[in-house]
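Course exercise 7: structure representation. Students receive a sequence record and must write out the corresponding structure in token form. The form below is the worked example handed out in class, using Presequence protease, mitochondrial (206 residues). Read each field label carefully; the graders check that inputs and outputs are placed in the correct fields and that the protein name is recorded exactly as given.

STUDENT ID: A-19
EXERCISE PROTEIN: Presequence protease, mitochondrial
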Amino acid sequence: LAFRIGISKFQLAAAIMLRQSTSTRRLLQLALGRRTHSTISQPKISPAVLNSTRALARYRPGERYNGFVCTRTEYIADFNMTAFLFRHEGTGLEYLHIDRNDSNNVFSVNFRTTPFDSTGLPHILEHSVLCGSERFPVRDPFFKMLNRSLATFMNAMTGPDYTLYPFSSTNEIDYRNLQSIYLDAVFRPNLKYLDFLQEGWRLEHS
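STUDENT ANSWER:
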């Protein structure tokens, strides 16, 4: 699944949480259309279904959350996760939120980068934006974080018509720190001429 994350100013706020007074059983009964006073024995509900039911109650299609409108929700049983698709009202950008019972947290900024020629420009830009940004003007902040972060994955990659900047971490502080570095890199890169000279060359063998 690809994530298309927007400008850092438009961060998705905390979701509407379930009220503590609402029990899981009551929530399931409402979801299944059953009466709360039914005396019929209820089948056992797996933890995956319980988690997905709780997750689906957090965001509802058509409702607004800090400038974002929830456009679609879906439980994906094959991966035991619930997906929520949001669209920002002001910019039209899409944000895909994945809710899963997993200690590893993943974040990715994705762009549609359709090439117009064979110069390899999207791949050059992928490397160039990671050579310093407005908030982090140091040389190669991406590579400096490889041995300073608790990340379980850090990378950037260019496909035929897209560019991805994903990372993951099990530590929340580290996750937020990497998130700020990635967002600043892709939205406010320095893009110095020397960086282009470093990244924008190739050898063509006759």
